Amino acid sequence: MGSRSLGRLAPVALVAGALLIGSVPSLAQDELPRIVWLEQGAGNPYWDAQHQAAAAAGEDLGFAFEAVSGNLDPAQQAATLTQLVDQAPAAIMLNAIDPNATAPGVQYAKDQGVPIVNLYSIDPNATASVTFDDRAEGEVAAKNALTLLEQRYGTPTGTVAVLHGQLGQPASDDRADGFIEYMEAQEGVEVVAVQATEWDGANAAQAMQDWLVRFPELSMVYALSDTLARPAIEVAERENRVCTPEADWTTNPACVVFVAVDGFFVEDVPAGKLYATQLYSPQWSGFKFAEIAYDAATGGTPAAETFLEALLVTPENGACVAEMQAEMAADPANFAFEGSLAEIATARGCEVVTVE
Fold this sequence. Notes:
Distance between the termini: 36 Å
Structural class: alpha/beta
Radius of gyration: 21 Å
CATH architecture of the largest domain: 3-Layer(aba) Sandwich
CATH superfamily of the largest domain: Response regulator
Number of domains: 2
Shape: globular
Number of strands: 14
Number of helices: 11
Order of helices and strands: EEHEHEHEHEEHEHEHEHEEHEEHH
Strand content: 15-25%
Largest sheet: 8 strands, mixed
CATH class of the largest domain: Alpha Beta
């Protein structure tokens, strides 16, 4: 893989009435295929890391990259999608807040011959869809969480609360549903609360403050993102309510086990604050998304549906995987992203943890 540099990213500017998160200079845009990532919003560190990786893919493959914000408003994102189609980019990457709101814009793009690569859900009307199987990943998280509850109580039992992302957003709903449905099927487990956070850490912290009072015997919190888990953990730490390998339920019966997904703070697993997460790696996934968009932008025929697989991270492989992810984050412009996360981890000697 050729060398890539992120040094050409331009400052923030306004484009098409929406926030431009990052772009290459106008000269490159004139010469190269233009691919636009229409994001849900701006300022989320996970999204920012994905956009940086997509820009690195642009340097490597040869396309001009922009990321535009939908400002967390389904109607505004839908309007921006139509505006972008009118600009006739080579392809649009869409992370829809509400697929129903953007459906007319996807059809309009199809009518205008602008490829749409749909992210984090399946849209049969898009040129291609690429996503994680979030329902399946939620079930993996639940199966692993159940083993932790069994270790704690001797049988798979306990009370669990869920820090949801955004209700109605497919990846968020599927991730939560896969976990909740599996847990609710277990006779001894009770899901006592599900709180939407709008992917905002402050909302996660507020929910945790409430739960510590309402549920004094709370066993576990499942967060749909590490970026939600960390502020919740900080709240629980102030009350000495966080289970860690050094001070687990045997020494602190009131402690809460935290598990999460996306791996943005994967280092919290070897640090002992998270008992597990599932690495989606914004750098790896952002690069993979951009590769498929480039194929669509240049006349290729990407698969209608592509499912990426997360990597379960536990204390058994946490230190190794955290080091791997740190390498991706430190230099996405030169990291070799070929293969799945499990394949990349295996090549680095990391254990691949599975659950039945």
